[in-house]
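Protein of interest.
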Amino acid sequence: MVVFVTREKRPTFAELLVLAAAGSPKALVPGLSKEEQAPGGTMASAEPLTALSRWYLYAIHGYFCEVMFTAAWEFVVNFNWKFPGVTSVWALFIYGTSILIVERMYLRLRGRCPLLLRCLIYTLWTYLWEFTTGFILRQFNACPWDYSQFDFDFMGLITLEYAVPWFCGALIMEQFIIRNTLRLRFDKDAEPGEPGGPPALANGHVKTD
């Protein structure tokens, strides 16, 4: 089905560009819902990422951060210029699931708790999740970490020395990873490799399927 929106009922395309540049909500085409249009008046079929897609992004983020952290730790402690970062495949599941749960915490707490309190809650959750997953993996001799050499460890599965890094990581996780991931959208009608463009025009009118 093709719908034509007459020029008399909507701004011209040039006006749309001006309104879009100004960030005006008037750039939306009358008669179409906000979900059917992208910001600036362009047509879109965008929808939020699925939970599985977000889990994947969170898992890759955690995996990358652990490699970078262990590489930096090796450099600081042993001054190793090879920066050998290490991790485990288990980290994909551990980080992906943990951050997805923190995402739900963020959505519930953002209007109720200040930022620092939220980060403290995330840190406590991180300790609980790290201990739980580590304890389960240890039953199969598969736990990839051991904090026994630290002074304030508990069963070698968690350690108080990591409280500040976990807190800082929680802050970065909410402010940059979770918030930006929740802003991402799929365009189900877009063709792979083709950038999005302005709405199709037919005889001076906006044309949509």
